[in-house]
Every structure is written in structure tokens, then in C-alpha cells.
Amino acid sequence: NYECFASAINCTFSHYCSIYYDVEKHFGSFGSFFNLTPLSGTFGLNPPYQKDIIEMALEKALEWLEDADKSNKMLTFIITIPI
After folding, report:
1. Entry pTM
2. Which of 1, 20, 70, 76 has its CA 20 to 30 A from that of 9?
């Protein structure tokens, strides 16, 4: 129920992260994905198709999944990236 990379004009959920928090906080943005600390829930992870951002996002997601597993929390990422 949460989009990790979106904007006010392309989000489909009421909770999302975006690059321009100062403007988009008024529309529901929670700021940068890289400042997020998800504990549980389902997150759509569709980063910009830029290799370094994809790699950083996947590294963060793996860290959070390991933390959730240690805490017996249910955390899911639906990942959309080019192959």
C-alpha cells in the first residue's frame, strides 16, 4: 500500500516517497525513499531506470528485509526493474 518512487502526478496510493518532498508533502509524500525505514507492509519498488539508483534501492530493500526477518515482521517489496 506504499509506493517507494512516485510523484503527486503518478502515484496510485496515498502513501509514497518522492524526490521533491518540500512541494509534494502537501500531496502525501513522505520524502526520499532512502530516508524511509519500513518495518512491515507491502511496498511497490519501481525506481527510476538508472543503474546506480536501482542498485542502491535494492541494497536498502535487502537490508530492510533482513531486519524484518530478524524481528518476525511481514515485509514485502514488489519490485519492477528492467532486465
Report:
1. 0.87
2. 76
Gap between the Cα atoms of 56 and 22, Å rounded = 23
Q: Tell me how far CA of residue 54 lies from CA of 26, 28, 29, 70, 82, in angstroms.
A: 27, 23, 20, 24, 10
Can you list the pairs that 31-35 forms with residues at least 24 positions away whose Cβ atoms lie under 8 Å? 33/4, 33/5, 33/57, 33/60, 34/60
User: CB 71: neighbour CB atoms within 10 A?
Assistant: 10
Is the separation of the CB atoms in 42 and 7 below 8 Å?
no
What cell was used for 62?
Answer: 535487502
> Is there a contact between 75 and 39 (Cβ–Cβ < 8 Å)?
yes
Supply 2's cell numbers.
506504499
